[in-house]
User: What shape does this take?
Amino acid sequence: MTTRTLALDGPAGSGKSSVSREVAQRLGWVMLDTGAMYRAITWAVLQANIDLDDHLAVAQEAHNTTIEITTDPGNFVITANGEDVTSAIRSPEVSAAVSAVSAVPQVRELLVQLQREAVENSAFGIVIEGRDIGTVVLPDSKLKVFLTATPEARARRRSLEVDPLASIETIAQTQEELHLRDAKDSGREHSPLKPAPDSQILDTSDLSLEQVVEQLVILAHQTYS
Ligand code: DC
Assistant: This one.
């Protein structure tokens, strides 16, 4: 693999999405938001009224859903079967169901393959963010970073992204939702959320977006210069 890769993993609210976009823009690389792909499949599963416990039906729906996702960090659009789902995939319903859908092994196999193809098609460099990038999707990536942050910092970030005036109650509720999702993502049998043995851990709790971006850009230059 000749493409330069930054495999960026971490739990919800660790700042991965904003960081990836900014880092990719500064490096002149593309970016892939793999969480958005799991969300798009989840959206399709919910649209089809499929029982989330029926793994066979979930896998079948994933198989029948065509996903197209842009990798331009300045213009993010994702479609499922031709329908623009860029906003719909952030709904509370999708957020509540996505852990169940992403725990189905056939769904993961399908998306990991699409993710590797996106990497192969990116000529210069790609920031690819998710939960299993360093461990499963790109185990040979020369640069792997795992972002962490305290539960409070992550809940605050996620809530303020949705509503800049979010109340303390909303932040507390978000913290509970993130806790539930993390427990499912970390405890699942297939590709659980965990740092690869060779990833660098970066705690972003007390860092600004700019500080995190700067550190990653420096790491990318050091790794690929
Ligand atoms: O990054 P996000 O919150 O949009 O991700 C949504 C869900 O997708 C998350 O709860 C776990 C799952 N996911 C995954 O299992 N593997 C990935 N590489 C990315 C996301």
